């Protein structure tokens, strides 16, 4: 039996990157999927890939901005209306934002990054946890970052928001373990996603690929991670095999976090 057969999983940020990679792994393992993203084109692309893997897969697409509390409540309600339960939640949607020194970091830019990366994660937890508490079961994986467990220069908004995700994860794990709900976070390092490519382009312009080669030199594995490698981890952490793993932040960064 596949690990996610008859399981219902919500994935935010499902239209690209880590969200798409995790979705494809979950589809391969039999999940019923609710895919959320602001990018409708990306959502449809992910759905096409899911159906190529599993033609009989049940998929609900919802275009939503996770920074909008009402939109988050809507996708949770829509999930319950269609499937009647929520077994797993990959609370993943996020942005990096512009790079700048803290003193030059724009106030509106800071608010935007925090609104999506931290407020959006909180809204998702708020409404999904209520459902899982009533069920007496469920698993949540939040996307933090290595920038949530150590500093990253020129990214005040991103680092602050991802540190907040780590705090929410640990705090809620203490609160909801007694109800059969496990809550974890992942802390990806340099994974070659569209967001990371965008960051490299901010730093290097047309020479972003050369910047990338320099960027991974401090990494013990000397390479970028692959989105599917994160997808495998997320699927495990959402599965019943990881029910007793609670309140942890799992780095997936080739060992870079432990080098300093």
UniProtKB/TrEMBL annotation:
Pfam families: adh_short_C2. Keywords: Oxidoreductase. One of its GO terms (biological process) is bile acid metabolic process. One of its GO terms (molecular function) is glucose 1-dehydrogenase [NAD(P)+] activity. It is an enzyme of class 1 (oxidoreductase). Its EC number is 1.1.1.47. Signal peptide: none annotated. It comes from the Bacteria. Belongs to the short-chain dehydrogenases/reductases (SDR) family. This is Glucose 1-dehydrogenase. It comes from Lysinibacillus composti.
């Amino acid at each position: 039996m596949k690990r996610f057969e008859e399981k219902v999983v919500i994935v935010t940020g499902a239209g690209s990157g880590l969200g798409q990679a995790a979705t494809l792994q979950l589809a391969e393992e039999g999940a019923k999927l609710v895919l959320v993203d602001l990018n409708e084109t990306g959502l449809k692309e992910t759905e096409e890939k899911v159906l190529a893997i599993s033609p009989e897969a049940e998929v609900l697409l919802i275009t939503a901005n996770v920074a909008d509390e009402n939109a988050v409540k809507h996708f949770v309600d829509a999930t319950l209306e269609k499937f009647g339960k929520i077994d797993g939640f990959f609370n993943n949607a996020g942005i990096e934002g512009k790079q700048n020194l803290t003193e030059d970091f724009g106030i509106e830019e800071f608010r935007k990054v925090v609104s999506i990366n931290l407020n959006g994660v909180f809204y998702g937890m708020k409404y999904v946890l209520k459902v899982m508490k009533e069920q007496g079961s469920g698993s949540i994986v939040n996307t933090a970052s290595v920038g949530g467990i150590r500093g990253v220069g020129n990214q005040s908004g991103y680092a602050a928001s991802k540190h907040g995700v780590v705090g929410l994860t640990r705090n809620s794990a203490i609160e909801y373990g007694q109800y059969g709900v496990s809550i974890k976070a992942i802390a990806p390092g340099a994974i070659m996603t569209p967001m990371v490519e965008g960051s490299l382009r901010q730093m290097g312009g047309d020479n972003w690929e050369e910047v990338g080669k320099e960027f991974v030199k401090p990494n013990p594995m000397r390479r970028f991670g692959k989105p599917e490698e994160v997808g495998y981890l997320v699927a495990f952490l959402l599965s019943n095999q990881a029910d007793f793993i609670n309140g942890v932040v799992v780095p997936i960064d080739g060992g870079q976090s432990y080098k300093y």
